[in-house]
Amino acid sequence: MFWYIVSAAVAIGTKIVFDLLSEREKKKQEKIKRDIEAVREKQRRLRERIEKIKREIGELGKELENPVIEERELASVVLKKYLERIDELVESRRRDYESIKDVKLAVERDLETFAFSSVRKREFRKWLLFLEEAIYKLEAYFEYLEWFRKRINFLFEQGNYESLIYENPPEPVLPEDYLYTGKLIKVKKDAKILESGRIYKNSYGQTLRIPPRDNPYRNCEIIAFSNYEGNEIPVLITARSKRFPELYYGSFVKGILLHDYGLKRIPLEAAVEEDWKTKVIVSLYNQRVGQLPREYKKQPLRTYKIGEPLNLYILEYDYLLKRVTFSEYHPEEVEKKESVEIFYPLEMENSEAFKKFGRLVEEEPLMLKEVDVEKKELSFVLGNIQIDVVLKNSFLFAKNLREIPPLTNQDKRKLIFVPFEVVFTPSDGVEFSLCGEENIGYFVESLTTEYLMSVYREDKSEIEEFINKWKEVNLLELSKGSSKDFEVEIEEIDAEEGMVVIKGAPELVEILRNFREEKLPSFHLQAIDGTFKEISKIKDFNIEKNRILLRLELRHLRLKELEKEFLLKRGLLSLPYNPYPVMKQIKAIDRFINDKEIVNSEIRKKILKPFLFRVESDLSPSKKIEFFNDKLTSNQKEVVEKALSSKEFFIIQGPPGTGKTTVITEIVRQTLKENPDSKILIVSQQNVAVDNVLERLKKLGFSSMIVRVASTDSKVSPELGEEFIGRRIESYRENLRKEEVLHHSVRELRNKWLQIIDRENVSPRAKELILSQFNVVGATCVGLANSNLGFDASEFDLVIVDEAGRANLGELLIPVNRAKKLILVGDHYQLPPTISAAIREEFYKLSPFEREFLEKSLFERLFEAVPEKLKGKLLEQFRMPEQIGTIVSELFYGGELRNGLVKDTSDFVYPDRVIQWINVNGKEKLEGTSRKNEKEAKVLMEKILEIQEICKERNLQKEIAVITPYTAQKRLLRQYFTSLLKENPEMEEFLNIKIDTVDAFQGKEADIVFYSTVRSRGNIKFLLDTRRLNVAISRARENLIFVGNKNFFKNAKTRGEENIFLSILEKTEMF
What we know:
Layout: H1 2-17, H2 23-55, H3 57-60, H4 65-113, H5 118-157, H6 161-165, E1 184-188, H7 192-196, E2 198-201, E3 207-209, H8 218-227, E4 232-240, E5 247-251, H9 252-262, E6 268-275, E7 279-284, E8 287-293, E9 309-317, E10 324-327, H10 331-337, E11 339-345, H11 352-360, E12 367-372, E13 377-382, E14 385-392, E15 395-403, H12 409-414, E16 416-417, E17 421-427, H13 436-455, H14 462-480, E18 483-494, E19 499-503, H15 506-513, E20 522-527, E21 532-544, E22 547-552, H16 559-565, E23 566-576, H17 580-594, H18 601-608, H19 634-645, E24 649-653, H20 660-674, E25 680-684, H21 687-699, E26 706-708, H22 725-738, H23 744-757, H24 764-771, E27 776-780, H25 781-784, E28 798-802, H26 809-816, E29 822-826, H27 840-843, H28 848-855, H29 858-865, E30 871-873, E31 876-877, H30 882-892, E32 898-899, E33 915-919, E34 925-927, E35 930-932, H31 934-954, E36 958-964, H32 967-983, H33 987-990, E37 991-997, E38 1006-1012, H34 1026-1033, E39 1036-1044, H35 1046-1050, H36 1060-1070
Parallel strand pairs: 3-5, 11-15, 11-17, 24-29, 24-30, 25-27, 25-28, 26-27, 28-29, 31-32, 33-39, 36-37, 36-38, 38-39
Antiparallel strand pairs: 1-4, 2-3, 4-5, 6-7, 6-9, 7-8, 9-10, 12-13, 12-16, 13-14, 14-15, 18-19, 18-23, 19-22, 20-21, 20-23, 21-22, 34-35
Helix pairs in contact: 1-4, 1-5, 2-4, 4-5, 14-17, 17-26, 19-20, 20-21, 30-34, 31-32
């Protein structure tokens, strides 16, 4: 019954506070206005008669008395109607007033009598705010109606009938400018206020003043008034004079506190006045304004110094701000975690331990003793009383309460302070908690986390060791330095003058333009055997657009002599490696280790201590959503739902062809649907992975929300030209220039802003401001860290890292540090992070254990560590034909990977032989540390010619990927293919051919994939790397063709490892 009464009273109070009128009241008010307008019309006609009589006064003077009497009668009609309306309004509002007052007293009485949780108390106090303002406002309204009654009676008695007739009816709600205690108003900031002490005066005779001179807080009000910025200042009416009822007193301090901070929920800077054991007394402008309870301090047991500044949020306040509760946490955080109820059986109250417990509740802080994660049980200590609590059906139950021996000092040091208000509530079998599942879940998670952290505080996790080891690797890379090779096309050679003209790729041109090294690199020519050999050091160079003119130190080279040994069409520049990316990776690792400039420290904490992922509550069910893409499979939908339901972290394993891009796209769309202002980062180690997602979003109509971040557009897909950061900034400039601005002051600001951004090198801060309008940012891991691009310090609501298993630790931590929520997508059964060439030799000097330790990616470690709730597997592939998909599933995924569809093979080049092995008895040759096989390369070229003829005959167009594990074989294949293409230029009409290493081709796919095995002698341990082989086999959309020596691979030495090629050979013969 009580709940219904409170709800009804709050509804009435809300109507009064917000001046809401029912339809019936509106109709009554309109009727009064119509009736009075009719009286006024009669009075106007009467006035016309009076004027006429006055003109004829000489003859009809005796008739003047009748019109005057008639006007008095009209005024009496108005008076009567107004008095009746006043009585009606008083009667109606009096009933509301009495109801609200009774409920307010009942709520106050129950708050004092019963032990409610802070959540319930907070709810009641919110109601009290409404009820109390409604009471003050109604009392003011009654005064207004009485003022109106006296005014109209006075006008009638004074014979001022015309003024009475034209007086507007009494307002059905309190006039906006009528003062009452508790009202918040804004007044113009005028120095005369401090001189006269008068803030405001209205037409009802009411005056608002600052506190009198004998008030101890008057000086505080003057300080607040003087320091406040703005033309208007808020003031809260806090008191009324008992001697002069029309006189009110206001407070600038409390007005600022309520208007600027209480209603807006933004932090204010206050000062410590006193620090008691259980709370801190807070002051603003030297005036005591409230308290900071211990449970809302970020360091509950810390003692603050008097005068120490604090950044605080207003958490709760009463009607006149006599009692204000502050928090160092944002109110949303507090509301989420501040209070829980623990239910106990009624019979527990009969024990002696419970009686002692009841006395200790007010004296001692509640401390956590231990947690059983599996059983979801928590043990608390209050003095010498232990309470054992269990989480069951989303409620907390005290299953045991007992006295324990006094704890030793060592045991006391292990206890953990409970930063929550915990209320123990008797249970009669029916539990009802206003705390909600989220609060209880947060309570259990937080305390379990703190407990586990204290237990394992001294133990370094495997991941912590892994992170520190990777930092050593990065530092070694930085100290060693490195170089990057650029293969270039030669346009012209002047051997006599020592001049070489080459075509420069945009990245090469950019590096040379910023080249600061004293020692210039060497120039290499491609020899007839396909290798590159140094012919001279570079003396200097000049750049003309995309052409680079190199002047060599060695002149007078005889062209004919060069032609004997070199092809003279391709060259190579080996440039010193820019350590900038490595420096950024080291910085990201340092930030992560030291918890500096981390957007979400909870993610960091759990990555470092993966056992903490087990703590995440099961109370929050998976989100049920309406999917945008109706072609998602049930497996994909399940992964999307789980990812969206996770609070801070989720990890997705996506084997080849399982639709990772499709899933990421759906997650992005759902996130933007839930919060259109979300900032989302799509990031990967590879540009192509980022572009795949952004292109998909662009096709779905999200172009205006996307910006692609990169140092140069050469790294970006041509499909994303409009979304490239440089183009976005240029478009912004163009639109700003075109925009018509009428007001001169705004035009001046616009022109100043244009001066800042209308230059080649826009400052990072300006870029950040310009690009903040975009919701979806795409970048590589290292590209994000480039401070010149304006995003290195940005925060993102959601960060999705694709190909996360391929990123090394430093690369991965760059986006991790910027994430409020993190989703990792990758596949640890494909290639691991690559080791820089600069330290590869040093890396292989490590012990096998150390190498294996570093080669296991952070992605794989986390996927193994997190519970099922926080990870998902995509288990249906749609890229490969059934025959290839089955091999991949059986060899690398334990048969878990299913074929999502059966492909129509009629348009395949080889529909009847999807998988083939071309037997080539070639001999491998060493080239440096790499290997090549010329016979395999020649056979491959012949096979490509065969495919060309088939495509020509059947009018097909195909993408072909020729991949190999060895760099030397890649160079040889490219050389052969260049010659083949010259002889057969029409090939490009039917075939789009790419030649690369297996490692470089991860994340890509093609219709037909050739795998050149190269090997013909020795052991094949390198080729048996299941992750590299997985990538090689899973790139094909139609046909997969192995090229190599069958007999060798059947009998190859494997140093004790399983020869996977036996299974592959068996399958090729089957299919």
